[in-house]
Design brief:
Blueprint (H helix, E strand, L loop, with lengths): L2 E7 L8 E7 L8 H14 L22 E2 L2 E2 L20 E5 L8 E3 L2 E2 L2 H10 L19 H11 L6 H5 L6 H12 L8 H14 L10 H5 L7 H19 L3
Parallel strand pairs: 1-5
Antiparallel strand pairs: 1-2, 3-4, 3-5, 6-7
Helix pairs in contact: 2-5, 2-6, 3-5, 5-6, 5-8, 6-8
Length: 251
Amino acid sequence: MKLTVRVWRQPGPASEGRLVAYTVEGLSPDMSFLELLDVLNEDLVERGEQPVAFDHDCREGICGACGVVINGRAHGPEQTTTCQLHLRAFADGDVIDVEPWRARGFPVIRDLVVDRSAFDRIIQAGGYITAPTGAAPEAHATPVEKPTADTAFDNATCIGCGACVAACPNGSAMLFTSAKVAHLNSLPQGQPERAQRVLDMVDTMDAEGFGGCTNTGECVASCPKGIPLTSIVNLNREFLHATSHQRGRGR
């Protein structure tokens, strides 16, 4: 295969960026998109040019480190992570635009690499429990109904890649935040901080500069782990309950 990739090149956060076109040849349809970038970088290094900076780690769709906008879509034309997107999704001779996540909460560091530490701060604001659990208990010591367990597990699959933010026209982090809230608030261990967790995580999300949710659903369409839109509905419900609880206590 022969592909032309127009890659966003930006030396640093304060620098102007632009799309630069490169032709990459000798590609296999079975190669992943990140392997395409690997081949491109090998060519650039051989020519004495600066390689393209991009995030990656496990390359198995698990860690959430990878993530770029491909032809205007987060992670590309398929609902998967960038590292699991294969070149067979494109036709020989295609021209492909590759850009970083675009959101106020994800400032560009260099080229395709963005600072996603805002997600870490949202998790730190409420992603913990204070209930002493001691050693690992027996598996059935604390019964959890299957629908509740399913909700917790479904939301725990969020890998924090940021595709939901990049896909959202408002740059909202509601799907990510709602997944983290639903994961902990569904389980017995998360009940002591339930109300305060929602307030703290939503406040942190807003302080990080993410936009508001207008239910366009682009986040769900781009999420590689299939976090449902109902998680956002649940977050709104939890937030209203928490604010009502707060007002009832006169705070």
